[in-house]
Amino acid sequence: MNKKLAAALSGGAVLVLALSGCTSDDDGDDKLNDWAKSLCGQIQPQLEKSVQAQHTIVSTAADGKPEEIQKADSEAFQAISDADKAIASALEKAGPPPVDDGEKIQKDAIKDLNAASKSYADLKKKMDGLDTKDDSPDGLKAFSAGLSEVADDLGKIQKNGDGALKTLLAGDVGDAISKQDDCKAETPKPSPAQ
Q1: For residue 53, what is the enclosing H or E element?
Q2: At what angle do helices 102-128 and 66-94 cross, to 10 degrees?
Q3: What is the DSSP string of 165-181?
Q4: 3 state DSSP class of 117
Q5: Cα–Cα distance measured from residue 68 to residue 65, given in angstroms and rounded to the nearest whole number
Q6: Residues 129-151: what's their mean pLDDT?
Q7: Using one digit for the tens of pLDDT, what is the confidence trace for 27-60?
Q8: What is the reported pLDDT for 25?
Q9: Please, which residues have CB within 8 angstroms of residue 141's CB and are 6 or more apart in sequence?
Q10: Among residues 110, 105, 106, which one has the least CA distance to residue 87?
Q11: Is the Cα dihedral 38, 111, 76, 7 positive or negative?
């Protein structure tokens, strides 16, 4: 049941994956690098939280019990919502990047992050509203249909919400951000079987 959610989520790691991008040897503009360092120092814990939440959704057993899927996905959606909101706040605090159109880039990215935060909070509510108590074939079918709807909504969030973030992570700003160790969120490793 959770395979569709995992597939939709894999397309939405734009910010985390882009922030984990390659580094460049060019020192470039010191002001821009200082700005990126300031931003990344503030958002590093949020990137980790977002990566962990995405990993939770992907790793939740597709054939798991509805209660387990609901709990894991609901908590993950809340964590991603909180992380996006905190990243938007940090980006606002960091100020616009010192580049042409920096103010527009910053405002658009903040708007996208806040919209994504709200959308993930709405997904959490939708996930929490799914009936996990009815384990009859019809009840499981209804849960599966609801989960599929959540996955469709997740895909829409990710498709619609990454334009300004792509702009933020492009060009000189993206290069400066990608150089920062604090903006590199590691993919969680599965825990060893006990």
Answers
A1: helix 30-59
A2: 160
A3: HHHHTSHHHHHHHHT-G
A4: helix
A5: 5
A6: 91
A7: 447 899 999 999 988 888 888 898 899 888 888 8
A8: 41
A9: none
A10: 110
A11: negative
Length of the chain: 194
Q: Which of 12, 26, 11, 9 is CA-nearest to residue 174?
A: 26
Give me the pLDDT at residue 62, please: 67
Residue 99, exposed/middle/buried by CB under 10 A (0-12, 13-18, 19+)? Answer: middle
Residue 190 near residue 163 (C-beta atoms within 8 A): no
Model pLDDT, residue 59: 83
> Which residues are CB-neighbours of 170 under 8 A, at least 6 positions away?
none
- Provide the sign of the torsion angle of the four alpha carbons 48, 53, 54, 55, taken in this order: positive
Q: How far apart are the first and last CA of the chain?
A: 26
Question: Reduced to 3 states, what is the DSSP secondary structure of residue 95?
Answer: coil
94 and 35 in contact (C-beta within 8 Å)? Answer: yes
Q: Which long-range contacts (CB under 8 A, 24 or more apart) does 126-133 make?
A: 126/150, 126/153, 127/70, 127/73, 127/74, 127/77, 128/70, 128/74, 130/66, 130/70, 132/65, 132/66, 132/67, 132/70
Which DSSP letter does residue 189 get?
P
Least confident segment among 131-135, 141-145, 169-173 = 169-173
